[in-house]
User: Fold this.
Amino acid sequence: MTPAVSALRTVLDGRWAHVREDTREQMGQHALSADPDFTTEQYRAWTLEALKVLTASGRPNTGFDPSVGGEGDVGGVVTSFAMLAYGDLSLLVKAGVQWGLFGGAVQVLGTSRHHETYLRKIIDGELLGCFAMTETGHGSDVQHLHTTATYDPSSQEFVIDTPHPGARKDYIGNAARDGRMAVVFAQLMTRGEKHGVHAFLVPLRDGNGQPMPGVEITDDGRKAGLNGVDNGRLAFDSVRVPRENLLNHFADVAEDGTYSSSIENETARFFTMLGTLVRGRISVAGGAGAAAQKALTLAIRYGEQRRQFADPTTGEEIAVLDYLAHQQKLLPALATSYALQFTQDDLVARMHEIQAPGKPPAGAREQRMLEQSAAGIKAIATWHATHTIQTCREACGGAGYLSENQLPALKADTDVFTTFEGDNTVLLQLLAKELLSDYGRTIKVGNPLKIAPLLGRQLASIGAERTGLASALRRLPGLSLDLTDRRRRQALLETRRDDTLATAIRNLAPALRRSNDEFTVFNSSQDLLLTAARAHVDALVEESFRQAIERTTDQDVATLLRRVYDLHVLSVIDRERAWYLETGRLTATESRRIRPLVNELCAELRPHARLLVDAFGIPEPWLACPMLDGAAPLPATQETAEVAAAG
Amino acid sequence: MTPAVSALRTVLDGRWAHVREDTREQMGQHALSADPDFTTEQYRAWTLEALKVLTASGRPNTGFDPSVGGEGDVGGVVTSFAMLAYGDLSLLVKAGVQWGLFGGAVQVLGTSRHHETYLRKIIDGELLGCFAMTETGHGSDVQHLHTTATYDPSSQEFVIDTPHPGARKDYIGNAARDGRMAVVFAQLMTRGEKHGVHAFLVPLRDGNGQPMPGVEITDDGRKAGLNGVDNGRLAFDSVRVPRENLLNHFADVAEDGTYSSSIENETARFFTMLGTLVRGRISVAGGAGAAAQKALTLAIRYGEQRRQFADPTTGEEIAVLDYLAHQQKLLPALATSYALQFTQDDLVARMHEIQAPGKPPAGAREQRMLEQSAAGIKAIATWHATHTIQTCREACGGAGYLSENQLPALKADTDVFTTFEGDNTVLLQLLAKELLSDYGRTIKVGNPLKIAPLLGRQLASIGAERTGLASALRRLPGLSLDLTDRRRRQALLETRRDDTLATAIRNLAPALRRSNDEFTVFNSSQDLLLTAARAHVDALVEESFRQAIERTTDQDVATLLRRVYDLHVLSVIDRERAWYLETGRLTATESRRIRPLVNELCAELRPHARLLVDAFGIPEPWLACPMLDGAAPLPATQETAEVAAAG
Assistant:
């Protein structure tokens, strides 16, 4: 590793640098790649073996409470987990299901009786489990899922039922083959009353792996990717579990069926419960970020060595990364990957401060802000991964289409990241509505969703559609016409964040005054809401990147990072320049200057492209592929000894 | 089929409606889907069997010359071929390799001696073959590939050699398993002189399937998709073939080694030869179009039946296609799919007029224009497919990730369409340079690539970066401010086509005056060239769609199509509105009006969405999937009887 790579990596590694280094060291010794020609059954078997190696490494301890022998390093485990995306994504997801979702739910939704009985077995992989929330008919709308858990005081049991096929639990990882128990989310009914969604521990299979009575398990079969994970469907027919199997951190049912909860309002309780599960969403964002980094590393290395068409002057063939169009495909995406890594680290640190053992209890506002950021960053990071990996595949041409060169698995495996742990469009809409609510709270008026008319009047004076603002902005102290001025660009992102929200409110206000049809009103403003959410996240990402550079003491690294930052921010402004022009934030002359600036930055960063991807520190054995060395494909192996002891 | 579907389908089916109907009828009786859990070997075996069923149907005759028993229906075969994308894309590609590329090359590059000896066997599937053009080190730059064919007058043979590993033929369909012969592109050397790339018939395997002496065949292995096609690599070590194996339509070598050609200039000869192969590129565009149509059909049907979140007013759950954001994902893409279908049909008809037997020989200009259009439309149609299928997968959520619901195969199989038959970026750049050349020819000045400085001066007065043009445009007779005016929108697309080309020339001109470094000059204008090419295709597509509506006699159909046309054209203007604002073609007020217009059109077309996809006429058995009927997954079958007799 050159000193430049080392210095840059130190900055990029951030607060959990030691975890990253440990993980790299453990991983770096192993080739971790499944045979692309595995059948589904072979790949599932391979992944289960890999999970055992992971268990043996002791890493799953990291995130759990010290009370059950864990290290309580919440930030560390999420950081380390995401790095599995450098290796095999089925292993990452299976590990995430087992320890993040299943184990995590037992920890945060359960109480000591569950912790003592199950957590050690979960950590040690003796009890493999599922997180059974999503239903065939209810993916995004979890609050209204249809599975029921009806309390029977005569036997002191809950009776779990799937009332119709649309209420089957679906896409459940670990269900089709390996899981013995599930955390099942169901509508709790007791004494004839419905109390909303709660979580229950439900045994799925007996010691011989046979389904328990009343449990019907079917297989989701082959998927676009992640075929090492055994996703399946669960249906329950009067399945009885003891009263104690309710994960009762937030609510409980007494022996006689009396319901009690520390949170009175059903909706508030539901969202509080869900909020504790924020770690899953953050982990997905991290995994997506790492997968995009790997794709960029492969494509940039290939782009440096691949030559095509001769220079008419010199007769020498030109490296494809020297073509402007190729740089435009890869380098802005690389800059955004840097931005997202710093953003992700900030997010992980915020979560750590709230969730790690021994931290003071988080305020509702802090928790809510964390959930908002997690929703928005998950959406943006996973779409970034989908687009970037697609671009990298195309940038590697035919070689990028061969499984031996790893891009096909990266693309196929991460494709569902935009869907699971919350559909991206739904998440951004959720974020937008939260932003409206926050605004409502700021100005201290009643039910936030109902105050849009009021907000509309208040905000009328700062509405977005003013023209001539570009010149006004330039008259602000310290801001110049020149788009190379970082303060100007920062202000552009912040303005967009504020004004797109104001525009959404201004559009909702008169419509809600005119109509009681809330669906139609919100639906007709849906694109404005999504725009506002996106702009909010863009500003958040800019802030994280900017602050990371401010913290950087190595001046050479800081200088390089500033150019990467410039490319990222200019790319965002470039993408949204129609909005800036429409709202008068940029003049036509300024707008036309953006693309040439992006091109100049691409040319400037081109010589540093290899350094920038090497700094991600992806273990070299995990990057090995024939297109990068002309060697024969690595022989695939099913031996578990080859599986990384990582996590 | 309702009368509305029938009437719309008639218009959409166009000139080759009878071929489409025949193909549907043959196909409609069969379920044509490979088991998603096939190993590579199983899938290849399945595809070969499917190919035999296709052979037995007699369809491959359609495109070949009557002299060998074919029907000479060039347009018909391309139309029918593309419809295989509704079924299994591996079969489509394997058929394309066998009859389109291999058989097609023998027909257009060979002469009667090759036709008589080989074409019947090729049509009947007795002789399976490869099209060995691409090399590991030379994908896009075919003119400079490194395989050599050196004439040896002593034995009257050509000696084929692979001088280094980078000159291996790579990604060659039919090579790894089934092909017995290949059309090999190699640099022809005779009497110590090099004459550029020519095509040779080279036997690959003997009757027992063993590689011929000197032929090394390796397997490309698993790919992202298309795993029913046996792609492989070919290397030649002093492989000798008779002199007569040169496909000698454009050039020949006499017994004594004398070279002769009807086209003196080596580069001109190369591009003439390549030009005859334009059918492959057009077929890929057609296949991509059909795949996107199938994805949209699946996603729109799902979006109509999938319900999520209750309407707060009525309490009823809302179909996801009723959400504006969902409509924005699918309906503009559907409108563009309509536009591309009409464009494709025009392209096929132009090709038919040039290539079908009995047609008068095409002029150089006609041929060149066809190649330009094919390059541009291939790029735009395949990117459209990649983006649209991705969007459809996401729009179907978790269900879209399951193989049983067909979207994963559509995505993975078509992913390489943006790469093969010409990398899209390279194709658009080629188109742009051709457009520059055409401009040069129009004003009758020497070498087109060298006249940019002159063009620059000539074009200075019509350069793109004028402001205030929006108001000027509105003063043109018949044009109004209102973006609902179709003439205005058509003018906007045409203006963009003309002005982006002028801008590219204006930027190249002074740079070429200043510098002799042609690479640097063109490279720094690469994005302008790509923009001009894209704008050219956008205008072409608009024209095809507009003319198709003008031809439509059914007034109800015409009315509906006009709204689809409106949505397509407005989406293009929306995508490019930053450019229109920067160049003063749209005012900020007008630009802000576009998105609401798009939204209104989405709402207006929403009730017709099902009709619009049903009109594609995809055979119902090929659309069957559990997410659309809640039924159990179709049992996968390996039986060849299930394979469609289609083509």
